[in-house]
Design goal:
By secondary structure, the protein is α+β, with helices and mostly antiparallel strands. It has a domain at 7-61 and 91-103. Helices cover 17% and strands 31% of the residues. It has helices spanning 25-33, 74-85, and strands at 11-16, 37-46, 52-62, 92-102. The chain has a four-stranded antiparallel beta sheet with strand order 1-2-3-4, with no helix packed on it. The N and C termini lie far apart (58 Å).
């Protein structure tokens, strides 16, 4: 018989690429301002409502990529790269952390369905 792992030992990580941010305005905005993002999570315990309290950390080292000519922001990458090479700017890292509660869907009220994504023809 396998012994159960304590909830507070559940953790993991993953990489989310820009293409996974989605087509809605918020996702498109993030995909043009951030590179892919590395996520780490760890269950911190149980919340008062029975959900899991999860600690979430995100990190991203942003760097300019002047050789990728397929993006609409290419001129910004070329300029940013030139500024870094001339020591007039530096690449940067983003770090953030937050605790959130994840509820068991079988014990929670159903969510309203998301609106259909906005189609952008331009």
């Amino acid at each position: 018989m396998t012994e159960a792992v304590p909830l507070t030992e559940l953790s993991g990580s993953g990489w989310v690429s820009q293409s996974a941010y989605g087509k809605l305005p918020a996702g498109r905005d993030q995909s043009l301002s951030l590179g892919g993002t590395y996520f780490e999570y760890q269950v911190a315990g149980s919340a008062a409502d029975g959900g899991l309290e999860v600690r979430l950390n995100v990190a991203d080292h942003y760097f300019w990529s002047p050789s990728d000519t397929s993006r609409p922001t290419q001129c910004l990458h070329e300029c940013g790269s030139s500024l870094v090479a001339g020591k007039k700017a530096v690449e940067f890292s983003q770090l953030a952390g937050r605790t959130l509660v994840v509820n068991d869907p079988s014990r929670s009220d159903s969510m309203e369905p998301l609106a259909a994504p906005v189609q952008d023809d331009g």
